[in-house]
């Protein structure tokens, strides 16, 4: 400590006279004893201050550090006092030198002490997010583990080596339905696949088997063998009480990108689209402006509470990319289909057992309704007595019955007929009104399931 004091003091305290002056612009001389005693008494015995003032004084805080003991003695300051200065001016100069030496001492003590890494002094300001941003982030984090990536593999034979290879022919999204490993997606995502692979949120890949599908509603159910702790079923909501304008969120894997979130609002309700596989209409479809691109098919559409309200299935775009008009199958329709597929492996839907002409052909004839082209004798309509379109002995075309209403509900095209049948069940008896020639007739028809679904 004495060594430190000797380094900080301009002249050693043990020397009776100062050493030869150094090359400096400041020359310090020894003050008279009377002035030394006066200044040293001020330094050693400063005026008393209130306790609160002493605690807040920066000098008292600096010298409270263990690394900074009071090593500056009164004798050292006595040698720093210039001669022939007035008492007030000398007092201010002495105090300034005292603060300077205190700062140097503190800097030296911090330099030689272990203060830890420099980043301990860096304070980062936390990121400020709005409440709606926090809710969106929470929704994405909570529902992402329920969304999966589906790869559709098809068998192809190499033209040169004739080797049989499995190559990806499509991809899409899906979501976990239950803890038994059932995955819900669109039928067009798995159509024509020889093998299916499901990638979970933790990037683990599982082989998938097809449980069943419904071509008419573009819904399919797969099953994977995965540990239950990796399966997080998505919360299922309802779609009957949806309103135009409420916020919706779509999670999927567009263009093969991992777990992408897009937001928007419900821009329309009770829309109708056609199934890509059968052309059969899908009613009560949800329209949204949330971006839905190739790869989003089969992914969930969520409301602001994170509940499933629809399955993303199609977009309206000539280019194939999102144009702000996307469609989702309502969850109320999907739930009933999934329950049947999981339980029976198929969907039992009633049919009339007829083949009908395209709507354009009927319009060209100036008629309104569904023209029956064929009605097999062993089908429901054939058993009831409906007549198909045929040719006479001279090759002239004889139009068959034209269905104009079912159960009193007007039928103007094939979509109307499908819409009415979707509200019926297998075994129901419906009254079919037809136009035969120039008069109308009514026939009771017992609805039957599709062949092979009995």
From TrEMBL:
<feature type="compositionally biased region" description="Pro residues">
    <location>
        <begin position="13"/>
        <end position="22"/>
    </location>
</feature>
<dbReference type="GO" id="GO:0009534">
    <property type="term" value="C:chloroplast thylakoid"/>
</dbReference>
<dbReference type="InterPro" id="IPR036034">
    <property type="entry name" value="PDZ_sf"/>
</dbReference>
<dbReference type="InterPro" id="IPR001478">
    <property type="entry name" value="PDZ"/>
</dbReference>
<keyword id="KW-0720">Serine protease</keyword>
<dbReference type="InterPro" id="IPR039382">
    <property type="entry name" value="DEGP1/8_PDZ_dom"/>
</dbReference>
<keyword id="KW-0645">Protease</keyword>
<protein>
    <submittedName>
        <fullName>Protease Do-like 1, chloroplastic</fullName>
    </submittedName>
</protein>
<feature type="domain" description="PDZ">
    <location>
        <begin position="341"/>
        <end position="438"/>
    </location>
</feature>
<dbReference type="GO" id="GO:0006508">
    <property type="term" value="P:proteolysis"/>
</dbReference>
<feature type="region of interest" description="Disordered">
    <location>
        <begin position="1"/>
        <end position="27"/>
    </location>
</feature>
<dbReference type="InterPro" id="IPR043504">
    <property type="entry name" value="Peptidase_S1_PA_chymotrypsin"/>
</dbReference>
<dbReference type="GO" id="GO:0010206">
    <property type="term" value="P:photosystem II repair"/>
</dbReference>
<dbReference type="Pfam" id="PF13365">
    <property type="entry name" value="Trypsin_2"/>
</dbReference>
<comment type="similarity">
    <text>Belongs to the peptidase S1C family.</text>
</comment>
<keyword id="KW-0378">Hydrolase</keyword>
<dbReference type="GO" id="GO:0004252">
    <property type="term" value="F:serine-type endopeptidase activity"/>
</dbReference>
<keyword id="KW-0809">Transit peptide</keyword>
<keyword id="KW-0934">Plastid</keyword>
<keyword id="KW-0150">Chloroplast</keyword>
<feature type="compositionally biased region" description="Low complexity">
    <location>
        <begin position="1"/>
        <end position="12"/>
    </location>
</feature>
<dbReference type="Pfam" id="PF13180">
    <property type="entry name" value="PDZ_2"/>
</dbReference>
<dbReference type="InterPro" id="IPR009003">
    <property type="entry name" value="Peptidase_S1_PA"/>
</dbReference>
<dbReference type="InterPro" id="IPR051201">
    <property type="entry name" value="Chloro_Bact_Ser_Proteases"/>
</dbReference>
<dbReference type="InterPro" id="IPR001940">
    <property type="entry name" value="Peptidase_S1C"/>
</dbReference>
